[in-house]
Amino acid sequence: MKNKIFFLVGIFCLMFTQDNIVAQTVKEVKKPNVIFIMADQWRRQALGFMGEDAVITPNLDQLAKEGVAFKGAYATRPICSPNRASLLTGRYPINHHIIANNMVLADSLASLGNQFKKAGYQTMYIGKWHLDSGTYASPGKRSGFDDYWLQTIHHNHFETRYFEQNNEKRQTANRWAPDFLTDKAIAVIDQNKQQPFTMVISYGPPHTGGGKGFEESWQPGKRINKEIRYGYGYSAPKQYEALYQPFTKIERRPNVQLVGNDDSNFVIPGYFGAITSIDENIGRLIKHLKDIGEYNNTIFVFTADHGEMLGSHGRMTKGVWYEESVGVPLIIAGPGIQKNIKTNQLINSIDVLPTLLGLAKLPIATAIDGKDYSALLKGNKMDGPKEVFLSFDRGALQEVERAWRTIITDDYSFTVTDAAIYFKKSDDVGDDGIVFYKLKSDPYEMNPIYTKTASKEDAIVMKQLYIRLENQLSKENDHFLKTHNLK
Fold first, then answer.
1. What residue ranges define each of the domains in the chain, with the CATH number in brackets?
2. Which of 6, 291, 376, 418 yields a CA-CA distance of 20 to 30 A from 340?
3. What is the pLDDT of residue 29?
4. Contacts (Cβ under 8 Å, ≥6 apart) of 283
5. What pTM, to 2 d.p., does this model score?
6. CB of 229 closer than 8 Å to CB of 264
């Protein structure tokens, strides 16, 4: 009888132990959630912890302490649609075929939504899309995103126009877009009963835009009224703009010049104010995830589709190769990722998707051009690329051609342009359309070096960079350099 009792107790203990092992295993293999936050026209310098722009971003500063921040992150093509497509597909524009704004992303591509949906994730997209005509997208035309709150292309950030799920009727929310979209994201997370989830939150600001009548303020030199900033229409709720007054006292980058007759100081409250508002909304989102117990099992990515010149080199907005235009923020945090690391590793938009797939331990499609940096994020040594390759063809389909190709290394920036069209009358490039910068000694790119006036030493480096650029474009089957011969 005793032996029988001991036998039964032993069986019970074994079963209990096995159940615990199974439960532990299930807990261990639970897939992490993914929240991918993307802003529009937010330059890399505009983060408090970077110590460059005088901007207030406490929540993103804290997120950087809890993960890895890249000090050398770049937009593959610094314009909305092409770079958004690169972020979502891990491909160069020549391979995902979105070369300018207002083009439609093929649903068949192995995009972020498609890849994570295939792996069993609930996939959600909230905010600005800008990868189609801006109208309702029917199911099966959403690049793998199951749930859909798509903001149309409309830069009045106080009047959010959007399509919700399968409702083909456009809706309007007369609220500041970051507040509205964050509320929507929190509500959707609470409604979602399927785990894990992948959510993209795409904020429209700090892109140009404003309140009523903002369309009239896009040209520099016009002050429409007290609610619209002088030139380009940057704006934010009043309490955030007030943080940056008086704007004339805010320190600017040494390469800032007049934009025509427009003093770009006037746009600071609207641009920086929008950034601080988004930072506060990101803080709300993080707090909610902590409250519901999902924060520690969530991978966060924060980045932008391109930067903003904000008066540097006498320019506004984007579309050029200068650091303010092509440099973007990139913070990645989450389970297994190192904490409080600021890395100089160069990284391109095409690298974000494969890195995210690597962190989630998901297969990476062979068609992806980018590199997986998940090992680096976890503290392992990696031999990453020592350069990034950037490009531009035109801003939008209806615009005249303006094109350039760039290679950026830790030390140099080298650009070849189609000087005959867009840059011919500027001093951005030499007569042959080429410009070279030594980033270590000239971080603000204030001392351009041209082919005709380069020293022998600089000429040698320029030829070497030209060859590296040529080799890369040859791999991409990009024939841009066929009209140039610097070798």
1. 32-381 (3.40.720.10), 400-483 (3.30.1120.10)
2. 291
3. 61
4. 58, 59
5. 0.90
6. no
